[in-house]
Design brief:
Length: 221
């Protein structure tokens, strides 16, 4: 049985210089230590041309490393681990093999046991022109109504995370193209996480978005 190590409280990320109304109730999925009273801008850099561990680095607007995402990419046993800046595992992201709707499960720490399940992500339908994913918390096993949803265009890196079926926005992605990033084979984009929203949860969702769309690219080849 794998031992789950509780991650220490992370240093707060630099707040984003923008004004969004904070949610009345904090949205904490992975942990309340990842909820900030101010909006948080995170930059995600993905190394496009390498198939190695540590393909994602996540920083705040000052360039401080907040998270890393490690895992075996482009393999049958695709499994990714979200690490904090010190290298402590926060959660494990794993696709469920042989499912119709590209279902991914997220577990606490490095566990993959059902008792440590945090949430599940799946496509809302089999055929999609634009991204639409539904997120179900572990305490919502019937999955009649989603707890969160993701909509937009992954190709343009312009996805939005909403609360349930409402129009309440929790986070937004933005693409960043620079000559340097193109030359270095890096895909850089930012995500603005709204106040009182678990930013580790949002980063995990983006890693799953990447995984689902990577699988789609392979299927199309």
């Amino acid at each position: 049985m794998e031992q789950i190590v509780q991650s220490p409280t992370p240093p707060p990320p630099a707040p984003a210089p923008s004004a969004y109304p904070p949610l009345s109730n904090p949205v904490s999925v992975i942990g309340p230590q990842y909820c900030c009273p101010q909006p948080v801008d995170l930059a995600l850099v993905r190394k496009v041309l390498t198939i190695t561990e540590g393909n994602f680095a996540v920083t705040d607007i000052n360039g401080n490393i907040m998270f890393k995402i490690k895992g075996k990419f482009l393999s049958i046993h695709d499994r990714r681990v979200l690490l904090d800046a010190a290298g402590n595992p926060i959660c494990t992201l794993r696709p469920k093999i042989m499912t119709v709707h590209d279902r991914w499960q997220v577990f606490r720490g490095e566990s993959t046991e059902e008792k440590d399940l945090l949430f599940t992500v799946k496509r809302s339908s089999m055929i999609q022109l634009k991204t639409k994913l539904h997120v179900f918390l572990a305490n919502n096993p019937k999955e009649d109504v989603c707890d969160f949803r993701i909509e937009g265009s992954w190709l343009e890196r312009s996805c939005v995370v909403y609360s349930g079926e409402s129009n309440t926005i929790l986070a937004q992605m933005h693409k960043k193209h620079t000559v340097q990033s193109v030359l270095l084979g890096k895909d850089k984009f930012t995500v603005t996480v709204y106040p009182n929203v678990d930013y580790a949860f949002i980063v995990a969702l983006i890693a799953i978005l990447d995984g689902i769309n990577e699988e789609s690219d392979i299927d199309c080849e």
